[in-house]
């Protein structure tokens, strides 16, 4: 079956469900939001495949962890893995924390890019490059950085992006975007603070 078309509304709905009153970030809606973002990236063609393919693998790994270990939130995942000690965490390339950190960095790039799209102050290629340089670039080898910046030059116009959002008119797309960004930012902020507190932002 063909994958369902991307709609920004599903990303909004997922991230809206993400944070509990206790400020826990729930994994099920987080991963659901990411599946929507992956569909968004895939709808843009091969330009973003270097990020979307990686994200697909990371989401699948975290989904498996969530089901197998029964961890329901980002906080529970960190607690479970930190219990074995920081050294054990650094030695495990397939750890949930490490996997989550990779998605977390990519979420920052998407958050910045979507914010830029909403403001509409520059060409999409410039917005995307600026967002990438402020988030993912420092974690990528030079070759990927170079390929990414070249690929961003081929991005469609802002209007085409708003059309890809699949939520109606340009004004409706802007409204949903404006609604979704604060939820994505909140999830990013809580996760960032958690990783900072446990000194996990540079997990290898």
From TrEMBL:
Residues 26-166 form the Glycolipid transfer protein domain. GO terms for biological process: negative regulation of interleukin-1 beta production. It catalyses: N-(9Z-octadecenoyl)-sphing-4-enine-1-phosphate(in) = N-(9Z-octadecenoyl)-sphing-4-enine-1-phosphate(out); N-(hexadecanoyl)-sphing-4-enine-1-phosphate(in) = N-(hexadecanoyl)-sphing-4-enine-1-phosphate(out). The keyword Heme does not apply. It comes from the Eukaryota. It holds the Pfam family GLTP. InterPro entries: GLTP_sf (IPR036497), Glycolipid_transfer_prot_dom (IPR014830). Keywords: Cell membrane, Cytoplasm, Endosome, Golgi apparatus, Lipid transport, Lipid-binding, Membrane, Nucleus, Transport. GO terms for cellular component: cytosol; endosome membrane; Golgi apparatus; nuclear outer membrane; plasma membrane. Its main location: membrane. It is a peripheral membrane protein. GO terms for molecular function: ceramide 1-phosphate binding; ceramide 1-phosphate transfer activity. Transmembrane segments: none annotated. It is found in: Cell membrane; Cytoplasm, Cytosol; Endosome membrane; Golgi apparatus, trans-Golgi network membrane. Belongs to the GLTP family. This is Ceramide-1-phosphate transfer protein. The lineage of its organism: Eukaryota, Metazoa, Chordata, Craniata, Vertebrata.
